[in-house]
Structures are given as C-alpha cells and as structure tokens.
Fold:
Amino acid sequence: MRIDILTIFPDMFPCVLDASIIGRAQDKGLVDIRVWNLRDWTTDKHKTTDDTPYGGGGGMVMKPEPIFAAVEDIRGEEDAPVILLTPQGRLFTQAMAEELAQQERLIFICGRYEGVDERVREHLVTDEISIGDYVLSGGELAAMVIVDAVVRLLPGALGYERAAAEDSHATGLLEGPHYTRPPIFRGWKVPEVLRSGHHAKVAAWRRKQALKRTLERRPDLLARAPLSEQDKQWLREMGYQGPFKNDSETE
Ligand code: SAM
Structure:
C-alpha cells in the first residue's frame, strides 16, 4: 500500500510514522508513506498556501491551486482515493479503517485555518473523514490517527496476527480485560480461569467479559454486533433488555 499525505507541517509526522508498528510496517515494505509539503506546489516567492475568505470574516482559507497541483502530480495516472480530513466528514470507525486497508493507495489532504477552498471538496476530493465531533487546529493529527488504524490492519504489520481481529470494535464489541504476571499484585489476583490452561473455558470467559464490558460501557454497540444465541442468552442474564441485530429480520 502507498499512502501520500499533503500538509504544510510535514515535520509533525516522522516521530509518529517512524515509530513502533507503522515504522516496522514501512521497514518490512508493507506500506510506503510519503509526506509532502504543500508549499512545494506554490508558485509565488512567499510560497503562499492560504488567502483571506471571500465575503469577509476572520481566518484564512487554503487556496485551491497548490492542492490541485500537488494531488494531480502525486496521483499521476492512477486512480487513488483522495481523502480530505474535516470535522464535517463521515465519522471514522474501525469498519472504515478496514475498508481503507483494502486500498492500494490513499491520498490525505490536511486542512488548516478555516479549512480548504470549497472547490477542492467539490472537484478533487473523493471522501471526507472526521475523527470525531470536535475541532482540531489541523488535519495532521487526524491523518496520523487514520494511518495508524489502517496500517496496523495490513497483513504482517502486527507481531500477533489475531490481535487486530480480537480488538475492541473489530468484533463489534469492546474487548475484555487483559492480565499479565505477577499472578497476585498487591493482593489483587488474576482470575483463576486464565491460569487454568483450559482453552475452551478461557475463550468462554473472554467472550463473556467482552459482552459484559460492552453492556456496561457501550450498550449501543450491542444492537449492531454480530452475536451468537449463546451471547444473547448471556446478555439477557446480565440484564440487557435492548434489541439484537437480527431481531427485526427474524420477525
Ligand atoms: N472551519 C472548519 C469547520 O468549522 O468545519 C474547521 C477548520 S479546522 C480549525 C482546520 C482543519 O483541521 C480542517 O480543515 C481539517 O483538516 C482539520 N480538522 C479539524 N477537526 C477535525 C476533525 N474532527 N477530523 C478531521 N480533521 C479535522
């Protein structure tokens, strides 16, 4: 996979992209991430990427010319998704990370100031993504969040392949608790079942814990999660009274 990121603050990226899982994924050749300085596509001596808004008002708006020129250069003849980071985009989820991880190429545009000229959104961008209902100063952190979530899904990126499949949200549920040594810390014990070596019992315990945790913290997820009849029974026993995914389909 190749990922191109367009920004006026390229220096923000190396620390995050070169570390840990993303850094290793690049070293292994699973992903080629290139961060581009938008100013390299400006034509004036001040390398201007923004201008005052038409209609007045405060703030600055990112000019369309360098963004179009950069994307057209970087994309070449290939047909790559061009993603604008914006608090007005569709809300980023694990399902979207999985979709993006299937792509050969991704191009991200990081906005700044009041955002980008509307013509970029209308005529260049193919997708608009928000990482949450709050406003950041720029799209760089949002791009890093999405790149991290996508790259760790690439086959070979994680040391332990099943980890991503069991993570919170990948299963539609929150993951249950984890423990490591020592078995007793300050008098607090690791649950006995985890030390039993009984794989089926451990799996059942983990599944129940994931259901319990989701019920306690994000009951809204339960109505959409793929659940077995056993899961549903456990949830009812835990006091969940809401709907399940297939309820309406089976009625
Ligand atoms: N005036 C814009 C609005 O109200 O929609 C917000 C501009 S924000 C200060 C500057 C840039 O930060 C945006 O162009 C976008 O690239 C990025 N940004 C801010 N919040 C974001 C979010 N929640 N998700 C993704 N990108 C965001």
